Amino acid sequence: MFRKNAQMNSNQSKNGQWEQDLIQKMLLQGFKEQRRARRWSVFFKLFFVGYLVAILFLASPPKQLQQSYGEVHTALIDINGVIAAAEEASADNIVSGLRAAFKAKNSAGVLVRINSPGGSPVQSGYVYDEIVRLRKLYPEKPVYAVMQDICASGGYYIASAADVIYADKASLVGSIGVISPGFGFVDAMQKFGVERRLLTAGDHKGFMDPFSPRDPIVENHMQSILDNAHQQFKNSVRAGRGERLVESPEVFSGLIWTGEQAVENGLVDALGSASFVAREIIGAERIVDYTVRLDYFTLLAEQFGVAVGKGLAFVLGAEGVQPFISMKPN
């Protein structure tokens, strides 16, 4: 009887082991199939991304071909959007394009086309100074600023460095001023019983804190900074426009005008488009773009690098490992 029970237990143990082995094999096979499917999925994704990158790369002509353009032409620099260090319309990008445009052997003139609400006075000042420098270095190449929808604040700062300024009759021009916006929540905090606890080393270190009461000393100091920056702006405009500028309190008040009105107060010389200036003023109808832009290839490079990293992680079975890949320009 004991032997019979032992044999039955042995058979049951073998059956249980066999079932476990079968389940393990099925799970392992399923895991292999899943990994194989992922590998193929990553392969096709990488192939598609590579194909797209190749198409966009071929569709974007190298900048060297543009800069070595063989015919006499008008060199164009576009300034679009906010003028700031981290934007496409940064001083570094604009200045690089300007230098290439002036240096180009067959560029008959430089056309700076602006469509910007303004931005950093520092970045705008860099570009202004560089235009002034390049005009002295290449006196035979005139610089024309052409305003599109809007050329305000820092945009006009840059435009005032040009030899001649053109605009459309409906362009918005001006906003020669400096601003430092802010807000305060002191009364709201008192209403809701919120206590502000701010620790500083330095009496005015927290002067930009919106939860602290207004400080007349700080406000006077900030106003002096704004006035000083505004004076720098006005001096640059006066130096660029000269006697063409009709001096009045309104011109430097931060107001804007249409292009048609701006001709009357001397902020703009005449009405005209980029093609008009190239054809009728510079005399070189062919326009070659020297603007430094992030082309499609560069924009996709980072995403492509991330895709490659993830693909390698999948293939190597290390899906949980985040790839340390970066293709951001320094």
- Helical amount: 40-55%
Fold-level CATH name of the largest domain? 2-enoyl-CoA Hydratase, Chain A, domain 1
pLDDT averaged residue by residue: 80
Q: In total, how many domains does the architecture comprise?
A: 2
User: What is the count of helical runs?
Assistant: 10
For the record, the CATH class of the largest domain is Alpha Beta
Number of E strands: 8
Shape: flat
SSE layout and pairing:
Layout: H1 2-59, H2 63-67, E1 73-80, H3 91-103, E2 107-116, H4 121-137, E3 143-152, H5 154-159, E4 164-167, E5 172-174, H6 186-192, H7 216-241, E6 256-258, H8 259-264, E7 270-271, H9 274-282, E8 287-289, H10 296-315
Parallel strand pairs: 1-2, 1-8, 2-3, 3-4, 3-5, 4-7
Antiparallel strand pairs: 5-6
Features:
alpha/beta; 8-stranded mixed beta sheet; 330 residues; 2 domains; 2-enoyl-CoA Hydratase, Chain A, domain 1; disordered C terminus; 8 strands
